[in-house]
Amino acid sequence: LSGVEMVVITYGKKGGGIFLRNGHIIKFDAPEVKKVIDTTGAGDSFALGFVLGILDNKTLDDAVINGKKLAKKVLAQKGGLIFTYL
Predict the structure, then answer these.
(1) How far apart are CA 23 and CA 49, in angstroms?
(2) What digits encode the pLDDT tens for the residues 45-74?
(3) Strand partners of residue 25
């Protein structure tokens, strides 16, 4: 894939990984949630938070934190909808 710098994959409760063009892999844990209500939309929410972090020129680690915050909100409620931003 020409021009692809990174691929981010989430594995549900197993966390995920960022696969960089240079072969480096950054693994991350799933967000810690006291009680998971619904997993619908958690991966998509992580992706949104991560991309918003990247677009805001955050480091990869901070972008992951951003994504985990958003996913955590979705996991703690029913339906996969986000009513409040980070």
Answers:
(1) 24
(2) 999 999 999 999 999 999 999 999 999 999
(3) 19
